Structure formats: structure tokens, C-alpha cells
Amino acid sequence: MQLIRTLGTPIWNRQELLDTLPDFAVLYEQKFAQATNRQNQAKHYPIATLFMLWFTTKKLQPKHLIISTAIEKIAIEPLIDLFKEASPAISFILTNTTSKSIAQLPNLVAYKKDFAKLNKATWKDLDKKQTLIVFDDHQNGLKRLQLCKKLGFKYLVFPTNYPAARGDYYSLKKVFMHTGFTGTAPSPIGWWEKLKAMISPPKAEIIPPNADDATYLKEVCKVYDEFPPIFRANNTQWGDAWIDFNYPSPLPLLTSVAAPYQQLFKDTAEWYDWACYVELK
Known about the structure:
The chain is an alpha/beta fold.
């Protein structure tokens, strides 16, 4: 089993992440304090994932952000606000949109089509080197990356980057672990299956274990880096022990709560999703 967690030079270092954590905690309280159910919100976008998305956007300062997701309005609105805090001039493009109300959000263009079904003409006037794409659609991650390479996009984020035997799609982490994909695996949160069915009928995708896909990623990726957990819980979101043999992970940023704001991150540590950042050559 491969344990690749980093290729190339990451855009962050651990001290940068620790230094910006208090600022993000304040933003999180502001943007998500009104959520009717904080625990449910954490399942939509865990706080560690939100921190990664905010930090990456703040670091790169892209002009455009493409989000491919079927997430509902209650989760996408505060997420967009968070991106605006990180890069105030950013414009948004949403694909796989299932709600008319999302299309009415300011500074946003929405498409109901799957990202892969939008033709080249859709992106012809977009500065691809100034665009960040967030793939949270739980589709084949390798195919998403290959399409981005073909279209000329460079900067990608996969918020859910599940390890072997977990998750419902062929993630880049599975690629690097050489495990293939044996079909649609159950998600720990039932609402996701309903949303996913709206944009893409369930497919029994079978990918045998192989090293060729990982070789391809090494050839085309300038950077691949898994965002570290802020805290590491004893168990994963699936309820089993979080051990490196099954869940190889970067070292957590924190190991104990030393300030009140850190409790936010500790409370939902089990929802870590191995989010990764990719820069294509």
C-alpha cells in the first residue's frame, strides 16, 4: 500500500496554518453561528475542510472559482461568503446546481449540467490560470483531473479525498494507494445519496487495483498535497479506529486544546476528509 501524501512543494507550511487558525475560527463563528444545526453543517463541510478551502483561496487569490457540487443552499451560501472573505473580488461558477434559489445568489453563474458535460465554449473567456476548481461532486477524481488537464485548468481541490474501502467514488487518494475502486460505497450521511442521484445516477464503477493511474498522476501533477487534520480523533466518521494502516494521514496540526477557539476543531475532528490540493503541470 502506497503512503504518498505529498508531491512537489505545497503552497502552505504548518506554521502558516497554525498562525491563521485563530482568524479562521472567528470567521467560522460569524458565518456559521446562525446555522440551525451546527453538527449537521459540519457533515456538509467539516470545519477542517472549510479551513482548507478558505486558506487555499486566500493564498492563491484566484479571480474565478468553479464549484462542482450538488450541495443544497443552506450549506453553499455560508461557503460562498467564506470564499469572499478570503478573496473579495472572486467570481463564482457553480455546476451540478439543483436549486433555483442558488442561481439567485450574487456574483454567481450557475449551471445545472455536470462539469464534464459543459463544452469548451463555456470556458473560452475564462482565465484558466486564475481559476480554482473545487470538485465536491463525488465523481471519478482521476477523470475530473484528466479533463482539467485537457481543458488547461491548473488549480484543483478535492474536499472529499477518501482512502481505500471508504467513500463513494474513485478518489486521488485511492489512486495513490493503488487500491482501485470496487463500486459505490455507503456514505456515513444518507442525504448525500439523494443529492447525488439528482445529478448523476448511481454507477457500479469497478476499477481494479493498479499502479498505472498513480504513475499518471505523478507525471501530470506539479503539486499534490493532503491538508493535515487539525486534530486527530480516536475514531473516523465511520466509527472505526483511525489508524494509519487503514487511514494514512498527515500529522495533525494540534494534539490538545490550548485555547478556547480550538475546541471548535476538536469537536468535529472525526469528520476529516483528507482534502487535497492539486496543481497541474
